[in-house]
Amino acid sequence: MNSGFWNKNYRRVKKWSKLFYPQRKLRYYPPKFVLRDPVFEGVYHAMNSGQQVAVIVVSISNIREFSQQFEPKQLEEYKNEIKIGFQHIFEESSYSEDLLVVHDYYNEGLTVFLKIHDEKQSVVHIENMLRILTPKLERWMYAKYPYFNQTFEIGYMFVEKNDGSTQDALYTAQQQAVAMAEKRIQSRYIETLLEMRDIIQKREITLLAQPIIDLATKQIKAWEFLTRGPKNTSLENPLQLFSLARQSNLIYDLELLVLEKAFQMIGRVGCRDDVFLNFTPITLGNKRFIPALEKLLKRYEDILPNKMIFEVTERDSIDGLTFFHDNIKELRKMGFRIAVDDTGAGYSSLHTISEILPDIIKIDRSVIQDIDTNTVKESMLKGLILIAKETGSLVVAEGIEKKEEADVLMRNQVDLAQGYFYAKPGTLEKGRVAL
Fold first, then answer.
1. Using one digit for the tens of pLDDT, what is the confidence trace for 52-101?
2. Domain count of the chain?
């Protein structure tokens, strides 16, 4: 055999031997995805039979936000469900014959391999397909995860087989598709940033109030102020509004606006009851928060700090926030009280309770719903009440919608309650809610 044969095969063996390198050594190589046999063979045969192959990258642009709220295992399950759902949407469509495979080669999304017959106009075919399938994917994702404002962008590129291997051609096409998707994400991010800045600058938010009832006296003890975005838009929904603020890194600016609007409303209606306000640990842990709060207190002199309760929302971890604990101590020195929201909905609220020993614990709707027919939920309630006694905290139950749920809370001597059973959120006017 000649030397050319050996040189050629030596290079091939050396290239594929990387698959068997230990993980610590792989970090020195570019992050090329490794095609498994079915994928490689499908692409190889499609190209050899005269068909074009396109690589489509579906990039979930706010996957990092979910990664902060999910455990690693939950995040993998989430991504796998999206992969299954996307494949199902393809297979149920008229484009099912084009699909080679859907895979999660791209860390923050999916990679789809399509074969396209020569008689079809390639770019037009893909654009038409995406125009039809993208809304279906959006609807599927929203139905599956309605509490997250999931956004994604799509990039695609055709595989061009030149002198290199099919593997290299696929890698190049995939990287170009990723770049295209990320460019679109960057464009959308700029649009999101401008939209959110516009809302904050124009102060286009409204505060509603929902009463919190003393279960022993049946009297209004406090109010929770709830934020709504611009009226008659999708951002009127607070989940959408605050998700957009997170994506544009303007959550602190939005929540500071909410705080000022709350001070204005308290002064306007002469409210002397306690007021609850939701704040993320991101805001409460910002080094600018205390100075900004002090300025607002000077401007709104009728605000009584001992009547204000800052609710720490459960969705964000307090770990790694340098100024969070110092700010909490400072707030307490100023007379403000601290509550932990959404207790029972996840693990992080229990961790937060142990870290800050809140004045008030708010029990999530997921624990309260149908508690009258679920003995396990009542046991959970009793456990949370014991935790509250240990920390010296009052207990507020959220989301009460029927008398039977309220009766269970009374039986277990819960301090305070709120929910549609008592009143829906509305405009606060001189100690009452106008719906």
1. 777 777 776 655 555 555 566 666 777 777 777 777 887 777 777 767 66
2. 2
Angle at 434 between CA 429 and CA 435, to 5 degrees: 155
Q: Is the pLDDT of residue 17 over 50?
A: no
Domain check: are 207 and 352 in the same one?
Answer: yes
What count of other Cβ atoms lies within 10 Å of the Cβ of residue 6?
A: 10
More confident residue, 48 or 1: 48
From the list 302, 316, 313, 371, the residue with the least C-alpha distance to 342 is 313
Q: Are residues 164 and 248 in the same domain?
A: no
Calculate the CA 399 to chain-centre distance: 21
The verdict on 187 and 317 lying in the same domain is no
**Sheet strands (E) in 373-423:** 394-397, 416-417
Residues 210 and 167 in one domain: no
Mean pLDDT, residues 376-402 taken together: 93
Please count the other Cβ atoms lying within 10 Å of the Cβ belonging to residue 199: 22
Is 0.85 surpassed by the pTM of this model? no
The answer to whether 129 touches 86, Cβ cutoff 8 Å, is: no
Q: What CATH number has the domain bearing residue 224?
A: 3.20.20.450
Domain boundary among 143, 172, 192: 192
3-state class (DSSP) for residue 92: coil
Helix axes 289-299, 324-334, angle to 10 degrees: 20
CA distance 141 to 131: 16
Q: Of 127, 157, 192, which residue constitutes the final position of a domain?
A: 192
Count of CB atoms within 10 A of residue 178's CB? Answer: 21
Q: Using CA atoms, how far apart are residues 222 and 360, in angstroms rounded to an integer? A: 12
Spatial separation of the C-alpha atoms in residues 21 and 295, rounded to whole Å: 59
- 198 within some domain: no
Residues 178 and 216 in one domain: no
What is the domain extent for residue 273? 203-434
* Euclidean distance between CA atoms 229 and 239, whole angstroms: 10
In a domain, 372, yes or no: yes
Q: Are 338 and 310 spatial neighbours (Cβ–Cβ below 8 Å)?
A: yes
How far, CA to CA in Å, does 332 sit from each of 263, 267, 308, 310? 18, 22, 11, 10
Q: Are residues 179 and 211 in the same domain?
A: no
Q: Give the whole-angstrom CA distance, residue 223 versus residue 210.
A: 5
Span between the terminal Cα atoms of the chain, in Å? 89
Identify the bridge partners of residue 53 per DSSP, sorted by sequence position.
115
| Residue located via tokens 């309260």 | 368
